[in-house]
Specification:
This protein has one domain: Rossmann fold (3-Layer(aba) Sandwich). Helix content is 47%, strand content 16%. It contains 7 helices and 6 strands; from the N terminus they run H-E-H-E-E-H-H-E-H-E-H-E-H.
């Protein structure tokens, strides 16, 4: 019994270490198009973190595919709120269609997609998970606050699609990860 427990712990450590090594090697280029996938309020915090880390980016809550021109990376902040959708004067289906068209255009342009989920458990559930799913499944890299991943939702996607994943403790840690991902010359 004790042997299997240690084997299990060793296996978990190996998986986490491998994911960290893969994630730490992921790099993307600037300038960045920073937009929402769901119109959640976390987008504003990510904008502030990007500014603090001197990243070159364009901020557009409702970016459409034509906005990708002149950018090297698409940065999606996943998670939804009914208040955010209302303020943007769109419904869930319109936002999903916008995000899908943006992802499709980025893929066609061979542009990397970095998805952040930094809203924790408040950006999970029925409304948000449609956006979380599409943004995570199409990402080339994931940056996820651990509290929003208690059920392994993002880990499962990362493992199945072989996507590098950074698991962070709190939203402010996303700034350091973004700085690392975009450490290449502008």
């Amino acid at each position: 019994m004790m042997k299997s427990k240690w084997l299990y712990i060793t296996l978990i450590f190996a998986i986490v270490f491998a994911a960290f090594c893969i994630a730490s090697e992921f790099n993307a280029k600037q300038p960045i198009l920073l937009t929402s996938a769901g119109q959640g309020p976390d987008l504003t915090m990510v904008k502030i973190l990007a500014q603090k880390n001197n990243l070159s980016f364009t901020f557009d809550k409702l970016a459409k595919p034509d906005k990708l021109k002149g950018h090297a990376t698409l940065l999606l902040v996943a998670g939804s709120s009914t208040k955010g959708l209302g303020a943007a004067n769109i419904d869930k289906d319109q936002e999903l269609a916008r995000v899908q068209s943006l992802i499709k255009a980025a893929k066609e342009a061979k542009m990397p997609i970095v998805t952040l989920h930094v809203g924790g458990p408040s950006r999970r559930g029925k409304l948000s998970d449609d956006f979380n799913t599409i943004a995570a499944e199409n990402a080339d890299c994931l940056v996820i606050v651990k509290s929003g991943n208690d059920d392994g939702f993002f880990n499962k996607t990362a493992e199945a699609k072989k996507i590098p994943i950074f698991l962070i403790d709190k939203i402010v840690d996303a700034g350091n990860v973004l700085s690392q991902i975009f450490s290449e010359a502008k």
